[in-house]
């Protein structure tokens, strides 16, 4: 989670969404247009020639360049895979999450430009590799970034059938920061965002142990460099936009472990996709014992904003509806003792619901 200092920059976001991604005009200076060919299709940046090709092949479409709108998408009106999801829920374990997070928060820090941030990323990569090693059809890769030494990590469970090219992403960020002393200061980052990293690891672990086979491809992302400006997630979202990857939905989990035991949690309503957010509220209601309350987390508060920026639908549930409930983040006090693994378990249940409901069938 990035701090709220950037609230004032909200207006810039509208400009960023409305503007074209880097490299969107060709060497001749010809502009591309953002074209959408159907409600559940991801808009694509096209050269004039490609647009003319659509016309010649009698395809109808809208030019939504500069509309400043996320794509209209249709999600299930309610969760429909309860039996499958609830069976996988049995495999989620707060104890396993505690073991994972205890090691992950024991590096002096996970700052994305420090030696420790590379070490922690190596540990995460090896731990993920160990988890998936007996699962054919599940691949992992590291994504290097030009400006930071820490690498993002991507795991993909390949879908089967005609929907395999569509992708559902579940993400968290792996880096931490001690804002007083990033390189040498201690930043366990247990909640920010060790909790999200742990939650999605446990979700992946349960899906693999259940031998869940998605129809759409399902990816788990651990982003590098969130704290210094969403560096890892922007690289990846931009790459997916450039390759026209059809991302059907992205769920970001950034801080899932700190709670005042009110039974409440937050649903971010700004810089997210409204319909996907509505579906996520229903997942909370169906699959957790928490009450979802809306709140705004501000410009670029976490990696979901990178996906929105490149025109992909994203949603973000949060540990509380109060953004600054946890007073310890970005310091040496964000330790494993301060997070609640039963609270995190609820988020693993929500993430499992998200993954299964959106990859299971053609809806
Ligand atoms: C939700 O369930 C967990 C156990 O899984 C429990 O520890 C927690 O208190 C429950 N929360 C609410 C708000 O009922």
UniProtKB/TrEMBL annotation:
GO biological process, one term: proteolysis
Keyword Cell membrane: no
Residue stretches in coiled coil: none
UniProt cofactor(s): Zn(2+)
GO MF: aminopeptidase activity; metal ion binding; metalloexopeptidase activity
Top EC group: hydrolase
EC number: 3.4.-.-
Keyword flag Protease: yes
UniProt keyword list: Aminopeptidase, Hydrolase, Metal-binding, Protease, Signal, Zinc
Signal peptide: 1-19
Peptidase M28 domain: residues covered: 153-352
InterPro entries: M28_fam, Peptidase_M28
Family: Belongs to the peptidase M28 family. M28E subfamily.
Protein name in UniProt: Peptide hydrolase
Source organism: Dimargaris cristalligena
